[in-house]
Amino acid sequence: MPIYQGDLVSVAGRFAVVAARFNSLITEALWSGCLDAFVRHGIPAERVDLFWVPGSFEIPLIAKRLASSGEYVAVVTLGCIIRGETGHYDHVAGQAAAGVMNASLSTGVPVIFGILTTESVEQALNRAGLKAGNKGAEAATAAIEVVSLMSKLPTGSPK
Ligand code: INI
Fold this sequence. Notes:
Blueprint: E1 15-20, H1 24-40, E2 48-53, H2 59-67, E3 74-82, H3 89-107, E4 111-118, H4 121-126, H5 135-152
Parallel strand pairs: 1-2, 1-3, 3-4
The structure holds 5-nitro-6-ribityl-amino-2,4(1H,3H)-pyrimidinedione.
């Protein structure tokens, strides 16, 4: 029984990262964790391009454009949406998630969801490297794994 899974090393190609400047204390930490994870998995910084956008709501448009450019094997998105900080949390979070999924499915290029959606600043800090890992590092690792898995998937039409 063949089992398919992605590797976490030796992935070729360039990666794009789209990061939101909103809540930049957190998103700078996500970017730092993201780049560190790329480098530690054998992807040098020269193969990672960073694109800043104003807020998480703007991420899907830029992610989709980059995913369809043919320049990148995957796009990682980084953002931070805090419920307590905004009356339109549900709109921003919902549209960011749906838009990232749309960018991925419509282009066939992995677009990874590294956007924190939390109840508080403390929760966000914890998930940006303080106590509970770094979502940016997790997103970089997921990107590498999915790119690797996609290169191993069976091709051709269903029998
Ligand atoms: N953008 C975020 O990335 N996080 C937030 O918590 C946030 N809040 O609180 O509103 C936020 N808003 C800005 C939004 O993403 C857009 O940049 C803005 O609405 C302009 O389109």
